Amino acid sequence: MDPFAPINGISLERYADLGAALDGHDKDAAKKAEILGAEGVAVADYDAAVTGWTARMQDMSLMGRVATAFMPMYQAALARRKGGAARVSYEDYVHVSALIKIYGFEAAIQAAGVSMSDWTEAGGYWTGQMSANMMQYAGHHNFVSQEEGKIRGGAGPRPVSVTRDTSAAATAQPNAQALQQQAMMDPVQAAMMNPAYQQSQAAAASIMQNPLGFGFGQAAAVLTGGIVAGSKVKVAWSDGNQYPASVMQAAPDQYLVHFDNGSQQWIPSNAVSKA
Fold it and tell me: Is 193-274 CATH 3.40.710.10?
């Protein structure tokens, strides 16, 4: 069965768009019927799509592929329907993240005055930003913990401000077919295309070019207090800062390090120093 086959005539992309149109009104039967009527969709067909697409997203055999393809479509639809993608400041993102740890998801966003759809967009944006700029947000988990301490200490929840990003990048319509094809990619193939995997393979190949020499070098590093697997180090980054990390693996002229924010990356040896 094609996991992306339309359900009662409603494709995954259309389902995402209808979900955005119904944002906040799906529990109001009269308003739901009104909105769906304006969209030319029967309530029965939409309800069948909800049941069917939800089942596919939760189907363990599909390994989350349908949900992976759905989320960018849904976020783009929300941005289009609401006149821009929802954004919150990084400080507000940290605050709500701390609230979620204390109160749970629904109570936290309610206390912060943010709708579920706006938080879905804003949270997705910051997740992407942190993945793309790991060093800039290396202290994120510490910031959330600090904010959690303030809230538990009596500061309490505060409302956050939601703005709209109307840039072309934020409101661009994703290619549904490309998202679905990417989601269905074989996991092994997808992993092999990952830059981190490719870099790991290159490191292994460089070791195998001179395994004896590399082994002697590591032995010497152990004896002289140099950098080896397990060493605590500082990593010099392009922003001029140095970030703490632990060495997970050594290879000629580079180290695989684990940063405090949980990310792992191969770093040139000239940017790594003993902590």
Answer: no
